[in-house]
Specification:
Elements (H helix, E strand, L loop, with lengths): L1 H5 L3 E7 L7 E7 L6 H19 L2
Antiparallel strand pairs: 1-2
């Protein structure tokens, strides 16, 4: 049962409002991954930080 719990998807959904730009909906979805919840959260945070750097001046 523990193995099945580790394979559950992890996701994050947010809306960003950068200055002088249209709003941006960001959805990050990790599926069928055997990483721990902490590692999944780290991956989502890294992806989100990268998107913020790219879309904001």
């Amino acid at each position: 049962m523990k193995k099945a719990m580790q394979l559950l998807p992890t996701m994050a959904l947010t809306i960003m409002w950068p200055p002088a730009q249209a709003s941006i909906v960001m959805a990050i979805y990790l599926a069928e991954i055997e990483a721990s919840i902490d590692k999944r959260n780290d991956a989502i945070a890294t992806i989100a930080q990268t998107i913020v750097i790219v879309v904001t001046p």
